Amino acid sequence: MQNKNKTLWKVIGASSLGTLIEWYDFFIFGSLSIVLSTKFFPADNPTAAFLSTLATFAAGFVVRPFGALFFGRLGDLIGRKYTFMVTLMLMGGATFLIGCTPSYESIGFFAPLIVLLLRLLQGLALGGEYGGAATYVAEHSPEGQRGYWTSWIQTTATFGLFISLVVILLTRLLLTEEQFDTWGWRVPFVLSIFMVYVSYLIRKNMDESPEFKKAKSEGKTAKNPLKESFGNVYNLKFVLLALFGAAMGQGVVWYTGQFYSMSFMKTVMFVDTDQADLILGIALLLGTPFFVVFGKLSDQLGRKWVMLAGMLLAVCTYRPIYEAMYQLTNTQTKIEREDLRSIDTHPAQQQEEHKRITTTTKTYTDGTQVTQVVTTLLSDVGNPILKNGMPQESSKTTVHLQGKNYALLVALIFIQIIYITLVYGPIAAFLVEIFPVKIRYTSMSLPYHIGNGIFGGLLPAVSTYLASNAHARGQSDFYLSGLWYPIGVASVCFVIGAIYISKTMTANKMES
């Protein structure tokens, strides 16, 4: 038993390292989306540029189902190991090349086009990676313990995001703001190639999964995995149930807690970028062990209600949570210490265009500090340049939280991470167990990547659009409007899952 566990830990270590690196590669784009919007898109409309960046980010998710089909078929034909070796190299190469792509200022329209193509390659690679790694670990795991062992793979997505945030923070700390803005943002992308190489060296010595080797030796592998997965009406019902009863709800909960929360802190609450990244990083670090906790719990209680509990909690509490987050930086409800207010005005000259920069710093009684930088364009004689009777100005507001407000924001993000661990911890075991070995890679990968890639991946762009529309209409709680998308999707998924998912849905039943 001890030797078997030792082998299992080697399998998990090798599989997890590669999957973690692929998630890191995939997520640094999202983590740097605000910076990238200024590099690969026209700078004259920041809002449009940011939405374009989110759309490019989402494009990587949209193609994930195609990667699931292509690489899932390969995985069921030639094996799990070799397929996710290919996806690792494809992901690493695309990420490295994003870091090498010239900016919009240098090559114009070709910059966003190249980045979009590389982002699509990333999505295809990830579409093949996750199903392979999850299947590989599950097929090494003993019966009755798959939830526990596969939950270690589930931690890699969150750790990938966590490491992307750490690398970005360290890069910012080691460089000046000007250096990071000029070239430093490329460093996290370029570093990927070295991590991929290390993972490749580890993975190439792994053996094929025992269940696949057994099926292959007995001549029971699929001859046409796509047809047997989706052309078979009985199996197709399970594919659809896996998607609409589990994966799509899990996808929106996952991306709300990790990506929408990050975007919300930076673009709605105006929390300082480094502080927001650190807050999310702390919450991720505290929450990650719960993937294993709930994965193991699902071995004892069943996958269904552990996953659905996370969805139901999210549906019922998202709006109160985000309202509480918003109020932490809402200065309308705070009392300013006017004796600590500072105003600094000085001229600046850049590219022969005169500017006046006014920095106002306000401190509130709860420790919150708000810095507003207003840049006014000036004529040659020093007067503000007017447009429609108003000075041409741009403004940037940054909020720093202190003390209990800082801790409360960490706690509110942490609660959302717990929801993620409830829905995500057991789902790999759930998907593996409802499909037979010969078509498992293909069958489980498609619903997972549609649920995450389509329903989850579109969340940042759709929710930002909904919130922007509500703001344009003058809606007072516009900042909560983006939540209707994940709440609606998770609600539908909860109802379908509660009614139709059965505790006896296993691969053994499918094989009969």
TrEMBL record:
Record-annotated membrane-spanning stretches: 12-36, 48-71, 83-104, 110-128, 149-171, 183-202, 233-255, 275-293, 305-322, 406-434, 446-466, 478-501
Coiled coil: none
Subcellular location: Cell membrane
Main location: membrane
Xref: Pfam families: Sugar_tr
UniProt-listed Gene3D superfamilies: MFS general substrate transporter like domains (1.20.1250.20)
InterPro entries: MFS_dom, MFS_sugar_transport-like, MFS_trans_sf, Sugar_transporter_CS
Residue ranges of every copy of the Major facilitator superfamily (MFS) profile domain listed in the record: 11-509
Keywords from the UniProt entry: Cell membrane, Membrane, Transmembrane, Transmembrane helix, Transport
Superkingdom of this protein's organism: Bacteria
Mode of membrane association: Multi-pass membrane protein
PANTHER family associated with the record: MAJOR FACILITATOR SUPERFAMILY TRANSPORTER (PTHR43045:SF7), SHIKIMATE TRANSPORTER (PTHR43045)
Name of protein: MFS transporter
Annotated organism of origin: Sphingobacterium bambusae
Taxon lineage: Bacteria, Pseudomonadati, Bacteroidota, Sphingobacteriia, Sphingobacteriales
